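Case study 2.
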Amino acid sequence: MKLQTSTLFYTFLFILSAGLCQVHAQDLPAKFGKVDDEALKMRVYEQDTSAAAVVLSDYGYSYFTYSKGFKVVFERHTRIKILKKSGYDAANISVPYYQRNSKKETVYSIKGYTYNQEDGKVTKDKLESKAIFDEQTNENWFAKKFTMPNVKEGSVIEYSYTITSDFLYNLREWEFQSTIPVAYSEYNARIPEYFYYKQEQQGYLRFDESTNTKSRDRFTITWSSEVTPGMGGGRTPGGSSQVEATSDVYRWVIRNAPALRPEKYITTLRDYQAKIDFELQTVKYPNELPQVMTGNWEDVTKDLLIADRFGAQLNRKGFFKAEIAAITAKHTEPEQQMIAIHNLVKRSVKWNNKYGIYTTGTLRKAFDNKTGSAAEVNLMLTAMLQDAGLEAGPVLVSTREHGRVPQGSPMLNKFNYVIAHVKLGDKEYLLDATDPLLPAGMLPVRCLNGQGRLIKKDDQRWVTLKPTGKLTKYFNGELTINPNGGLTGKVTESSTGYDALSLRRTILEDGQDKYGEKISKEIGNYKVEKPEFQNVEDLNQALNINYNLSASGNGQPVDVIYLNPMLGKGETENPFKLEERLYPVDIAVPIDYTYVAKFVIPDGYEVEESPKGAIISLPEDGGKFMYIVQREGNVLQIMSKINMLKPVYFAPEYPYLKEFYSQIVAKHAEQIVLKKVSSN
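Prediction:
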């Protein structure tokens, strides 16, 4: 949002008052340039003895200045203890900053030291300016990067920097947690009464301290002279005036924040990180009406639909008219037209792995070059669907790695992807043409992240980004156990849904021979021969793999045969290792894994021991594990079935989920024991 200048030609000169200086000079958690012996002598962080590094203190402060317009100044001072070699990465620092058109952020006053204790003396290595370099990450984002010098096990590093920003809309956010433990984190913000920011707190940690006090600041307001032309005009003299304004002074502290460590089945750790963010809601300068800075979705939708790199592209359809005419002539049913257009885009344009909600060029250029970004591919898909007369519109998405989208005020920077929405009667479909292996109506896992925003003039709303299928695997084996402990038989593995999507990609990328070798490695002590693949490229059919399976045994009959009936396909490790988990378990799609194996017992042997059947259920119909053992004559059948019925399990369900998998792992480890029958 653009801040409007005063109609009275006010120029605000922000003068730091005594009150501001006092806040800025308050006792800090660490004084730059001085490290105490305790920090240097630390060998283990008591709160987390496994930590390779720990943030001893992290202090941030945001305040406002005025120089040809208001600016936000952000200061940071960070001190880190390196405990192990595996913690050296904490000495690699990146400071992101943003530039757009004439507005910019400037990073300056970068200082840093590395402290070591050698022979009882403290050495101090300075970060040299020549070790600091700039890197451009995309069109608008840059980073100052540096590595602290002479880092060793036991080092203490500290650095500080200042950022001045022209962008007032988003006050600098503050992250209280990191991938290493944080012993002390403090953020201060001093905000003049002219600006009202909505604060958004995130994470599972509570503030140890949170205060909001008021302070009076002095401002000098100057205005330039103004010439009014025409009859009755003249010059209005310039001048200046001293005013006092109230500022909100905020302080937040969190102590002993645990490290954010990756666990299986999560979107991004940033979704659960303890942090505070700000969004500018209103601006009210003296003698002016308030300016509402936060838009609404109706206005944002209207702007997007006429934006040259978004909605305007949907109106430029001439270059594919012939292709759409051919499809609509061949297919009369809307659903068949949708599928055909989806296939056309997948064949015609390859995704270049670039994200974003805006096109970088025209859709015509992407079509001619046969490659484009996610926005270009799926806006083209939307345009073609509309040209066929189907009710279609684009949907803004934030991918799983990009993080959740707050549904309050519209913030387009929270989105990084576009898909297509189609409504056919009372049915709705979400389409993505970036992956040639995706059937129509199935989203890639990266897009299964909460809700997306449908951008249509007469139908703007949130749509749920849910999976339309499961991750379905089916194993069927018919095997004969030999007296020497060997085994021979045939196996069919069948996959549909998201499992088939993943397998098809692997098989097509690696080749069928290489994938056959991969099956052998997964199964372990068994030999896989003559693998046959069915429906690898037919996306509407189950993907089947048939092969012969064998194990050589001992070469001669044995008295006792031991066999794990899961044949290397069982769960061998619990993916949930934490004692407690604060954030949800997000598996993205429901799981349906069925394993059936029939074993023919050799003549002269009896079953001395076999696994017992079991049925284990998660609370609230969250899932079920069934293990069934049946015997008919000399045939022993084992069936294992794992059903995870929900895509997301919340933190209170974690203990049940962990125990659920513990019992599956234990059951899958059980063996069949066959004993040779005595001839007497």
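The chain is about 15% helix and 40% strand.
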